[in-house]
Amino acid sequence: AIRLNKTEFADIEKQLYEIEIPRTEHKFNILVVENTKLYAELIQDAVSKLPVTISYATNGFQALEQLLLKKYDALITGQEIPMLNGEALIAALKLSKGLNRSTFTILISSQDRKPLDSQIAPDATIKRNIDLSETIKSRINEVIGELANTG
User: Fold this and answer.
1) Which of 57, 68, 123, 138 has the greatest count of CB atoms below 10 A from its CB?
2) Model confidence, pTM
3) Is the CB of residue 76 less than 8 Å from the CB of residue 108?
């Protein structure tokens, strides 16, 4: 690929991922980006009974680094995270040419968000409220169902 001056290596990254993580029992990988322990635990509790493996990051730069190195099935991020806010993280991910560019993204925010360009917008936006836990569980369940049906 390098000899042919290619700059995208998604196929190679996918093969490396499949070698690295043999899935005997299908688990879905989720990256949670949250800098408050309370919300990180709330998200963990919401998906604890689902077939998921959760990784954590506490700021946008750390999350972006993880997203460039490992395949994730979903990203759940707070808007108000340090160093690279949630919207910027999702935009960077969707504009990247990496393996996770089509990963399902959920933005959690306490504020009403104005719509972003569809190319960089989160796949779902969830408001921080009393129903947050149930809404996250429901959305991740939908994502798992869609991923299971597509292979």
Assistant:
1) 57
2) 0.82
3) yes
